[in-house]
Write a structure and sequence with these properties.
Distance between the termini: 39 Å
Structural class: alpha/beta
Radius of gyration: 21 Å
Shape: globular
Helix content: 40-55%
Number of strands: 11
Largest sheet: 7 strands, mixed
Strand content: 5-15%
Order of helices and strands: EHEEEEEHEHEHEEEHHHHHHHHH
Number of helices: 13
Strand order of the largest sheet: 5-2-1-6-7-11-10
Amino acid sequence: MATGPAPTPARIALVSFLGVRAFDVSVITEVWGVDRTDRGVPPFDLRRVAADPAPIPLRGGLSLTPDRTLSWLTRADLIVVPGLDDHLTPAPAPVLEALRRAHARSTPIAALCGGAFTLAQAGLLDGRRAVTHWNLTDLLRAHHPRVTVVPDALFLHDDNIWTSAGTAAGIDLCLHLVRTTHGAEAAAAIARSMVTAPLRTGTQAQFIEHPTPHTDRDADTLAAVRAYALTHLAEPHTVAGLAARAGMSPRSFARHFQATTGTTPLRWLITQRIAAAQKLLERTDLPLPEVARRTGFGSEITMRQHFATHLATSPRDYRLAFRHPLDQPEVDTVRPHP
């Protein structure tokens, strides 16, 4: 059977300089530097880009050897900046200038955790919203007062620039960038390989240090309610109905739910329904009204409104962009990751 030409790999640039975090380098490499084409993931061309080719020592006795100079950024489809061991580490002037030129060319730029400080040094966050680890928000505000620091998001997008909160939120952002560019199935395949959730909901407010707001029993009860909602996604759900299943008042349920997940019950439910709809649009030929029914949106119009708000696209256009042409329709109930 004849096949078409192999797809052109997406070109990803990992910006490197003395002081970048080994963990973030590893995350970027794990997401875009592993060949998973046998699992349906598109090919990626990940390059370690630096001002010069000299090996860069990393904390923990590791080192990173650049394989491209900063001139390669003109070819990149996406530029990713790791976080820093010392968040006030000054980036080399050539790196900052290269980032400014890349943004002027409209190349997407993403920073993990303290990488936001590097983008702020370049002036790319002036007048824009950005996020970093919750424990660094005051530091970022103090040293870069022209940046609008958002205290609790997992990741943010503003004018083709992405920033993320700390450590695991960097994984969230990398998977989100794969999802928005290559589809939910590609992101899910990478997440399965990494043994992590393909999509976390909520904000980093759920991780900020504060007294435990409720007992372990309440947390287990809420987890059971979320699991129930996911396995009955096509059914209508209200806060009052979910609260009754948890044996709580609606007010108490909503308060404990947000403390646990970082988001409200209804926002969480919408996120799960969108994720389920994405899977059906990619993997089945079901008509759009049936996709809306199976995922609990009720109508194609409602589903279209949520896609426009959360994904900046329509269900029809999403299917055209990410449909797997050789996939067979699925007939089982969609059960997105909790």
